[in-house]
Amino acid sequence: MTDDELIWRISGGSGDGIASTSQNFAKALMRSGLNVFTHRHYPSRIRGGHTYTEVRAAADPVKSRGDGYNFLLALGDSFARNPQEEAVYGNEEIKPLSENLDELREGGVIVYDEGLLDAAEIPNFDERVEENNWHVFPLDLRGLARDMGREVMRNTAGVGATCALTGMNLDHVQDLMRDAMPEKILDPNLEILQTAYDQVREEYDADAPDVSVPTGEHEETQLLMSGSDAISYGAIDEGCRFIAGYPMTPWTEVFTIMTKHLPKLGGISEQVEDEIAAAALAVGASHAGVKAMSGSSGGGFALMSEPLGLAEMTETPVVLVEAMRAGPSTGMPTKPEQSDLEHVLYTSQGDSQRVVLAPGTVEEAYEQSRLAFRLAYEYQIPSILLYDQKVGGEMTNVPKSHFDRDPNPTLGKTLSEDALADEPHSADGKFHRFQHDVDDGVSPRSIPGQKGGRFLATGNEHDPTGHIAESPDNRVAQIDRRTEKLEAIRADLDAVDTGSYAGPDDAQYGILTFGSQQGTVEEAVGRLNDAGISVKSYGVSDMAPFPTEQVEAFVESVDEVLVVEMTASGQFRGLIQKHLGRYGERLSSLLKYNGNPFEPAEIVDGFEAAIVEGDGDASGHQTTFVPAAGD
Amino acid sequence: MSTFSAIGEEREIDRDEYTPSVEPQPTWCPGCGDFSVLKALKQALPEVGRTPEETLLCTGIGCSGKLNSYLDTYGFHTIHGRSLPVARAAKLANPDLEVIAAGGDGDGYGIGGNHFIHTARENHDMTYIVFNNEIFGLTKGQTSPTSPKGHKSKTQPSGSAKEPIKPLSMSLNAGASYVARTAAVNPNQAKEILIEAIEHDGFAHVDFLTQCPTWNKDARQYVPYIDVNESDDYDFDKTDRVEAAEMMRETEESLHEGKVLTGRYYVDEDRPSYGAEKQAIGEMPDEPLAERYWDDEYEWERSHDKFLDKHA
Lengths: 631, 312
Description:
The structure holds 2 protein chains of 2 kinds.
Chain A: E1 5-13, H1 18-31, E2 35-41, E3 50-58, E4 69-74, H2 95-98, E5 104-113, H3 125-132, E6 135-139, H4 141-148, H5 154-166, H6 171-180, H7 183-203, E7 222-226, H8 227-237, E8 242-245, H9 252-261, E9 268-271, H10 275-287, E10 292-297, H11 298-303, H12 305-314, E11 318-324, H13 341-346, E12 355-357, H14 362-379, E13 382-388, H15 389-393, E14 395-399, H16 417-421, E15 456-458, H17 472-496, E16 500-502, E17 509-514, H18 518-530, E18 535-540, E19 542-544, H19 548-556, E20 560-565, H20 571-580, E21 587-591, H21 600-612, E22 624-626
Parallel strand pairs in A: 1-4, 4-5, 5-6, 8-9, 8-10, 10-11, 11-13, 12-13, 17-18, 17-20, 20-21
Antiparallel strand pairs in A: 1-3, 2-3, 7-14, 12-19, 16-18, 21-22
Helix pairs in contact in A: 1-6, 4-5, 4-7, 5-7, 8-9, 8-14, 10-12, 18-21
Chain B: H1 34-48, E1 55-59, H2 67-70, E2 74-77, H3 83-93, E3 98-104, H4 105-111, H5 113-122, E4 126-132, H6 167-174, E5 178-183, H7 187-199, E6 203-209, E7 225-227, H8 241-255, E8 260-267, H9 274-280, H10 289-292, H11 303-306
Parallel strand pairs in B: 1-2, 1-3, 3-4, 4-6, 5-6, 7-8
Antiparallel strand pairs in B: 5-8
Helix pairs in contact in B: 1-7, 4-5, 5-6, 6-8
């Protein structure tokens, strides 16, 4: 057992406050000077169903969930039903303990609520404990909570026990409870925390913990934040004051965060009848001169195909977010996957003209949310932020200074009435909104209500005034101009460089990934290099327009490349090959599509097995290796 | 010069201002009812004092969608069935705009039916004109949601087995606060109803019977029409939901029995518009949001000052 990281897993039933308890615990660890990363696992259920959250904490930066974990706090599932072994979902009552044993590391600690969980119901429990050298602490957390407050406060008792067994000081936990809890429940919770802590320390030899909390120090103020928070704050800082949406997991997080804040900022949030309307409202608001967004997850985003194409054709700036989940169809609503990549790149009729950015971290989520708005409004094009539960829902610490930037509410190339007067108009006064020859293909726009600015926006092909036109010359001129915008955006993105790089420049091998798996890949790259394998990684964020030159240079610089992604069909690898047009013999894939994001060890083992040893799939993991062309 | 100086401008407006030079003569078929909608709008807009550049006309797809090409205002020719969500967001973004949406019966009662119900329910302050010709015209004569039961076409060769949509009743039930039906053959009434609809503070739905001489030759030309507000044969209170509903039912049933009833069916002047409701609960600014982006004095809020402490 190493002491350089704590990976604490709290398990229970959906609805038992697992998420909020873990968030406070993660924040306490962050305040103590550690870097943290959370990983949520939850079912698509209203109440009940086994759920857990992991909090990984270390002095060094943590970019991913870890390999397994080392401390289990198993609470009861108070909403468990059908507690029979033969039920469809098995015996749900015992799951918070039984379901979590496989991934617990050797030498790990188990604290479980013996008030609700009976270890005797788990086959071979004692043998497994002995075999793995686990340290088991059955505690009547429920009883303690009931005696001193209410049963639901057993989470607090569990945190107290955790602190006692890991040598963690209670100060930060107590501070957080004081910040978050109303007075009525604060005192009993503080009492329960202390009692559980004291009781464990008295009862067990807690001075020599089996797993301890590492120590660290932050040089500046840290914030515990999810990608959904960061995307929302990026939008607000870019002057977005209008959002329209329809609830769908997991996009709902961004929708609710924006909805909470916008009215206070004099903005508008609209919950509407469906996602077609949601995206169409964002287009309508933007057309009327407001910075606007919408978004959804896979199925809802499918409905947005029409307004997305309308935004492309009418050159209306708009930002859409797409929070991917496992598909097809309803798929697995609460499980991450990256398989909407092709959907988002190509949905809607005609040649797609859009920006698609896939942030890989919480910091990038903020930056690329801002970037998506800037590009959308400067180039009059829809921008899409593509992410999944790992970026959107997992929390990590970010320095507060990362957000200390100026707001940017500018609308891009939008003319004032004075400036409009100098622009070309038809004899009847119609403004030439869609001129053929303009810098970067961007023809400046007017806003309804402006004198001298009237024009027609239409989903039909149109002439410079917006009038419907089908002449071949006009068609070619308009398509070429709109395409020129993408070239200009690519040049703009080259200067920004959204890529994330790890490992030595002159490495022998490479790993390419996109979006949420970036942090996990980078941790794996560190471990592989430590093990003497020379490998570097490139986390790509620009899905469209694609950074062909940069990716080609990366592939060119190494012998072989493993493409890591959470899809079953290798969509990202396909995208790379589409743009590069060759190197098929150098690109192989490591895929995972079981509903859980990669663990670093899966990439390390997968890479060693497939690339270094050339044996194909690594054993013991639910990942799939697809060899390079010609292999 | 203010940002949107076309808004609220007080001046005489010539109806020719709404006629574009690019395509001054519409390409609708001779005898098409759509000409009457265009004409009535060109008469109504100067009367209510809204200029081309403070008006946003959002249309759907179909013969009716061509209205944008022939009425010279700010225009958004959207996609099939989606004029309403685009239009109502523009109204929320800038409530000072005069927002009018228009589309056909397939556009509004078929593919866009969900948006119609919800826009009416929310009571946005806008006018929605549905060109109801009981047929799909632009795609050459297929059965539409308002085609009568038994209507034969290439897509319903045995005659439609479906009852038609009842647009007025649907509108009332959904929550529209102004519901009227007029007909292309009745230009004076059409103009008056459009003036009322535009001036109405809430969702004003006008079902506009527009005969299609090309693809719906069998259908009536909507003559002779009867104005239910003026005829002595009908007596109902258009501010009473129950009486309005009964009058609508009779109108919708009699249309396919050869009696064309038109007029104002329901008017609720008391119900606040959606924008007013949203402002009342503090979820919409008093000043048009679109103005803020041009206000050099405005201090844009940023997350760093507003939202980060709870994450620390």
